[in-house]
Amino acid sequence: MRKRRVLLLGTLALGIALAFAAVAAGEPPVSSVFTDVTDPTTRVTTTSTNANGDLVTKTTIDGHFSSVVNGITGPFHTTIFRITHAATGKSDTTGVDFCTACVDTAGNSGAIANHLIGVTGSPTHTDLGNGTGTIANDRGTYTLAAAAGVVTDTGVLAKSPCISGHHAGPLTVVSGDSVCLAPGAVQSGPVTVLSGGSFYSNGARISGPVKADMPRAISICGTHISGSLTVSGATAPVLIGEPATGDCAGNEISGPVTITGDTAGTDFSGNSVSGSATLTNNVGGFIFGDIAPNTIHGTVTTTGNV
Fold first, then answer.
1. Do residues 282 and 258 touch, judged by C-beta distance below 8 A?
2. What is the mean pLDDT of residues 7-34?
3. Contact of 197 with 176, CB cutoff 8 Å
4. Does domain 30-158 bear CATH number 2.40.350?
5. Which pTM does this prediction carry?
6. Mean pLDDT, the chain, as a whole number?
7. How confident is the model over 46-65, as pLDDT tens digits?
8. What does the domain layout of the chain look like in residue ranges?
9. Backbone angles phi and psi of 246, in degrees to 5
């Protein structure tokens, strides 16, 4: 009887620990503002033509982040691709401000990537995440505004620990929370992101479908998903792979992909999909394998995207 009780207590403790891990990873993002100033003497621009016959302009430039409130500080190196579509004349933007030695207001430090998505005539949005060192858990979304040579990034930031190791059972991200899976994490069960939630996965494995209905940010990089991926009506950037910028490796998705109605930019590049891919009516910038092609083993539908 004593041995059985010990086993039962151990099982209960493990269950509580797993439940706590999922809850601890969620944190309501707080207001965050930082500025970035580039050094024009470091600008380098080259042009090329992609497989679709569109003009690709690549620009690299260095600069420095300065925190205003709950932001980050440090030097960054920017790589920006602008794809000018011959058919429409519009230029979609994808890129990254990669901060090589950043510190946040909590004293966390390391490198972190700030991914940019935009389109001619609309604001550029960014998705901050995929960090190293103690800054690895920082993640957030921003809208950029430029004035007098200074770009102000205004948005939200969360810094709670990402889920690491193995989490068994469904993972649900509730409204207002931001949940992330760390490199090497294993999620055994479906992931559901409710309206207003944010979900980040970098180098993880997910055994089950991923579904997000009217979320804020969705960022999935270098992740294997054994199931379908569905994102609809996102109100912040959706980043699903972009190897060209160096901050977000492509994903392996064993199932169909549906991404529709995003309003703040979508980048879906360098992914392998065992199923169909349907991306429709996404605005705010739309990148679909323009520089790092996708491999889709099924039908591809991309309509109404701007």
1. no
2. 54
3. yes
4. yes
5. 0.91
6. 91
7. 999 998 899 999 999 999 99
8. 30-158, 166-303
9. 85, 0
